[in-house]
Amino acid sequence: MRKVSFAEFGGPEVLQLVDAEEPHAGPGRIRIAVRAAGVNPVDWRIREGQVLGAHPVELPSGVGLDASGVVDEVGEGVTGVEAGDRVFGEGTSTYAEFAVLSAWARMPEGLTFEEAAGYPSVVETALRVIGESGVRSGQTLLVSGASGGVGSAVLQIARDRGITVIGTAGAANQDYLRSLGALATTYGEGWTERVRRLGRVDAALDLAGSGVIRELVELTGDPHKVISIADLGAPELGVRFSGVAGSVPAALAEAVSLISRGKLHIPVEKAYPLAGAAAAHTDSQAGHTRGRRVLLI
């Protein structure tokens, strides 16, 4: 089979499309014929060699956590799913023609493989950081870097829970944020004053790692009310860096419920072929994403 791999840490150019042995589903796992794989910032952070304790790497390494596809192997002890089922979920080395998943759910009706691949890690992360922030119904959550996949999920999940959301993004994505129910403003000079004019901030999320931790602490008045998923230096300022996943099966079940109720939709900004993984990483690292990027297998 074909898969994307890297033998050394570095830029997008280290990604190679190689021939590899097919993986197989061990106990408690399933294997899918991959139809699409989600492209997440954690993928290129791992490729660069950033120290992420939740994702230890042995070289050479495959790439990718999220995928959608058709079940073709069911491991020992697995029930409730069979060959031929359309699923989406999280596993390892998902930038490949076949991948083993450790958590999965059946795809909701009407969802395409391309769309489904963009949800697993994004929804798990969104649910986790909303919970860790402690924000409650009737309060206001500030989301820095709100137009990407996790931001898109946070905005919609928070609004479904009765939380007011202020989102920052580039000028081109202001209408997009408003379409998701957020109070929107641009980043750049004077952004903190623009946020203050929109209302009091009870908690804040740093999703982009753009060097705004100090300002988020200032706006909330308490470093314990700020969570970052993108700035490894956040703990130096007393802010929690959230990088260890919670229950992915629970997050997938919540995603299915939200999607089925029409409360969650994350658009796919661009789809790439498997051989275009390096281009997908380059674009992801450049930021300004609206929704998700995926690979089509």
Notes on the protein architecture:
There is one protein chain. This protein is of the alpha/beta class and 297 residues long. Helix content is 28%, strand content 27%. It has nine helices and 15 strands. Helix 5 links the parallel strand 9 and strand 10. Helix 3 (120-133) packs across helix 4 (149-160) and helix 3 (120-133) crosses helix 8 (248-260). It is globular, with a radius of gyration of 19 Å.
Q: Poorly predicted ranges (pLDDT <50, ≥5 residues)? A: none
Tell me which oligomeric state these chains represent.
single chain
- Give the strand content: 25-35%
Number of helices: 9
The largest sheet is: 6 strands, mixed
> C-alpha Rg, in Å?
19 Å
Helix- and strand-based class?
A: alpha/beta
Share of helix, binned: 25-40%
On the 0-100 scale, what is the average pLDDT? 95
Q: What distance separates the N and C termini?
A: 11 Å
What is the tally of beta strands?
A: 15
3D shape: globular
Order of helices and strands: EEEHEEEEHHEHEHEHEHEEHEHE
Give a short synopsis of this structure:
With 297 residues, this protein is of the alpha/beta class. The protein contains 9 helices and 15 strands. Strand 6 (86-92) and strand 7 form a beta hairpin.
